[in-house]
Amino acid sequence: MNIRSQISMVFHLDKCIGCHTCSVACKNVWTDRKGAEYMWWNNVETKPGTGYPTKWEDQEKYKGGWESNGNGKLDIKSTGKAKIIPNIFHNPHMPSMDDYYEPWTYDYQN
């Protein structure tokens, strides 16, 4: 692996006004390749709202989270051979492209 640079950002959340300037700057750096237009590497969660991707905290929709096995122990819902092997190359509960924002580019000249 040829690591050429590292980037770090620190935000003073007491001064955040939710303008997403930090997200736009981060998106321009990390999504300059074809196929990555929908990705956001810096998510600013403004609540109340649905989040990113849409309703990502909805455990019923995405089948995430934990469940009690009856012995007082917690198990991850999405694990186990019976659940993983049929969908080893495809997770039907992943967010679709419609759950992300529509791709766009920034035109700073206009």
List descriptors.
110 residues; mainly alpha; two-stranded antiparallel sheet; 16% helix; 5% strand; extended
Could you explain how this protein is built, in words?
It contains three helices and two strands; from the N terminus they run H-H-E-E-H. The chain has 110 residues and is mainly alpha-helical. Among the domains are: 17-46, no CATH class; 53-96, no CATH class. Strands 1-2 form a two-stranded antiparallel sheet.
Label the structural class. mainly alpha
Hey, roughly how much beta strand do the residues contain?
5-15%
Mean pLDDT rating: 72
Spatial ordering of strands, largest sheet: 1-2
Helix content: 10-25%
Radius of gyration: 18 Å
Note the run of SSEs as H and E.
Answer: HHEEH
- Overall shape: it is extended
Strand segment count:
2
Low-pLDDT residue spans: none
What is the first-to-last residue Cα distance?
39 Å
| Largest sheet report | 2 strands, antiparallel
Per DSSP, the total helix count is: 3
SSE topology sketch:
Blueprint (H helix, E strand, L loop, with lengths): L20 H10 L28 H4 L3 E3 L5 E3 L4 H4 L26
Antiparallel strand pairs: 1-2
Short précis:
This protein is mainly alpha-helical and 110 residues long.
